[in-house]
């Protein structure tokens, strides 16, 4: 039938004479006398316009390296991530195995130990939490895209530390749903501890896309995988104190409003809280969100002020300290990493099971949000004084009014709820915590092999 169609169609189009066909049916461009200069000009103009249109629409926007923010590295790594194969599967299963038990498979009843997928495991909090879980015997599988938001060698060094205790980090992106499905098919995770995110408050002005990619799209991709997993894992994830935004009532309580974010970063974390709520409501996922307050410590993030202040003070480079209106103090409720990790484990250990399966909710599920702070804010100037003392070097300081860059003036956590529900009790003051950080920093950066110690 289809073979006859073109002929039938062509029969209708047969011109009465070839000449008539050419003059009446061909496009305007062909009717122009080709040899006239005007027709040539029109033809080449059309061609040029078409090519310009094609290249502008089809190619990704580019700009000069000096003016453009860094590329969204998480997307890059999504394209290049390599996973799979028998050896890879063996490592995944081994890492996820609970000590003294076997890797939990579908329908297994787990009583001893947790089996946790930790996203962002090569990151600061993710690496510490993975280490603590593994050390107490839980099964831990890491997932990280090793993007280049900050020095990748630091992430690799954290990875080697984790490998030494038996934690394998799968290299891949949380947006890679095929990879996630594969992992959930291989291992029946009891919990997902989700740290993978685009962090940093001020960087959101340079690279907004990376926040949407990781903190919104990536989160949804991971929740989708959790919703279909059978059994569904309980989901514990890192929100942020930045959701309190421009609030002036302190200390910040979980009941306070969170609808005036000061940065896109904060807005994506707030959106994450709403998104996780909807997955809890529709699919019965057990959700716990942890609002971290400026976490610091050994193996920390080089984009954070305490970290790069240390580096710059040692180099004799000028540091900029922001101040509020009328020379007001800008302060943070700096929270030491070990306290945060205890909070994370407390949250994991008190989760209730998700109630859904196969994407269907079977009953109401737990939904919680906790502040994990230190409850004693310290001014940035004071932070620098402590560093000067510990480093035995005077800082070259420049005090500037805080620019409108996403920063807020003050954070202070009320932790009553976390104390009551998950036994959270921070014990490290800023001086003690920074002392441990400085000791690690000096050892890590003075050692040519960048080993440091955990
Ligand atoms: O608690 C949180 O929710 C957030 O804590 C930090 O954000 P931030 O508190 O802004 O931490 P830093 O970037 O280390 O800044 C600490 C303080 O130093 C100040 N600062 C920063 C940079 C600088 O050059 N000068 C300066 O005075 C900031 O204004 C801020 O008060 C993290 O970077 C976020 O990822 C996290 O979510």
TrEMBL record:
<keyword id="KW-0812">Transmembrane</keyword>
<feature type="domain" description="NAD-dependent epimerase/dehydratase">
    <location>
        <begin position="116"/>
        <end position="353"/>
    </location>
</feature>
<keyword id="KW-0472">Membrane</keyword>
<keyword id="KW-0520">NAD</keyword>
<dbReference type="GO" id="GO:0050378">
    <property type="term" value="F:UDP-glucuronate 4-epimerase activity"/>
</dbReference>
<comment type="subunit">
    <text>Homodimer.</text>
</comment>
<dbReference type="Pfam" id="PF01370">
    <property type="entry name" value="Epimerase"/>
</dbReference>
<dbReference type="InterPro" id="IPR036291">
    <property type="entry name" value="NAD(P)-bd_dom_sf"/>
</dbReference>
<protein>
    <recommendedName>
        <fullName>UDP-glucuronate 4-epimerase</fullName>
        <ecNumber>5.1.3.6</ecNumber>
    </recommendedName>
</protein>
<keyword id="KW-0413">Isomerase</keyword>
<dbReference type="GO" id="GO:0032580">
    <property type="term" value="C:Golgi cisterna membrane"/>
</dbReference>
<keyword id="KW-1133">Transmembrane helix</keyword>
<feature type="transmembrane region" description="Helical">
    <location>
        <begin position="41"/>
        <end position="58"/>
    </location>
</feature>
<comment type="similarity">
    <text>Belongs to the NAD(P)-dependent epimerase/dehydratase family.</text>
</comment>
<dbReference type="InterPro" id="IPR001509">
    <property type="entry name" value="Epimerase_deHydtase"/>
</dbReference>
């Amino acid at each position: 039938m289809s073979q006859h169609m073109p002929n039938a169609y062509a029969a209708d189009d047969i011109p009465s004479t070839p000449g008539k066909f050419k003059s009446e049916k061909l496009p305007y461009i062909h009717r122009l006398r080709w040899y006239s200069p005007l027709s040539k000009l029109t033809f080449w103009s059309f061609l040029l316009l078409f090519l310009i249109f094609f290249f502008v629409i089809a190619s990704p926007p580019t700009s000069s390296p000096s003016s453009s923010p860094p590329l969204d590295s998480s997307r890059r790594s999504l394209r290049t991530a390599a996973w799979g194969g028998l050896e890879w599967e063996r490592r995944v299963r081994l890492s996820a195995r609970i000590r003294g038990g076997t890797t939990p498979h579908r329908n297994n009843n787990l009583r001893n130990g947790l089996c946790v997928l930790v996203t962002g495991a090569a990151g600061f909090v993710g690496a510490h939490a993975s280490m603590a879980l593994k050390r107490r015997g839980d099964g831990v599988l890491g997932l990280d895209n090793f993007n280049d938001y900050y020095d990748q060698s630091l992430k690799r060094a954290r990875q080697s530390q984790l490998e030494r205790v038996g934690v394998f980090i799968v290299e891949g992106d949380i947006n890679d749903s095929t990879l996630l499905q594969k992992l959930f098919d291989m291992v029946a995770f009891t919990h997902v501890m989700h740290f993978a995110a685009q962090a940093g408050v001020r960087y959101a002005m340079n690279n907004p896309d990376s926040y949407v990619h990781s903190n919104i799209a990536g989160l949804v991709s991971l929740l989708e995988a959790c919703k279909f997993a059978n059994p569904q894992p309980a989901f514990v994830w890192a929100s942020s104190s930045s959701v309190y935004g421009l609030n002036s009532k302190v200390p910040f309580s979980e009941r306070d409003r969170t609808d005036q974010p000061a940065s896109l970063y904060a807005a994506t974390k707030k959106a994450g809280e709403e998104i996780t709520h909807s997955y809890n409501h529709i699919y019965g996922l057990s959700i716990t969100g942890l609002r971290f307050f400026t976490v610091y410590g050994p193996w920390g993030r080089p984009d954070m002020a305490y970290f790069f202040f240390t580096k710059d003070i040692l180099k004799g480079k000028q540091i900029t300290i922001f101040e509020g209106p009328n020379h007001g103090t800008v302060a943070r409720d700096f929270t030491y990493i070990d306290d945060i990790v205890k909070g994370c484990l407390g949250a994991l250990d008190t989760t209730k099971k998700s109630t859904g399966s196969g994407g269907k909710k079977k009953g109401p599920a737990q939904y919680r949000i906790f502040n994990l702070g230190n409850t004693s804010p310290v001014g940035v100037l004071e932070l620098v004084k402590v560093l000067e003392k510990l480093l035995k070097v005077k800082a070259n300081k420049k005090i500037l009014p805080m620019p409108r860059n996403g920063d807020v003036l003050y954070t202070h956590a009320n932790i009553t709820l976390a104390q009551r529900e998950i036994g959270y009790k921070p014990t490290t003051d800023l001086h003690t915590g920074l002392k441990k950080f400085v000791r690690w920093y000096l050892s890590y950066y003075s050692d040519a092999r960048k080993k440091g110690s955990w």
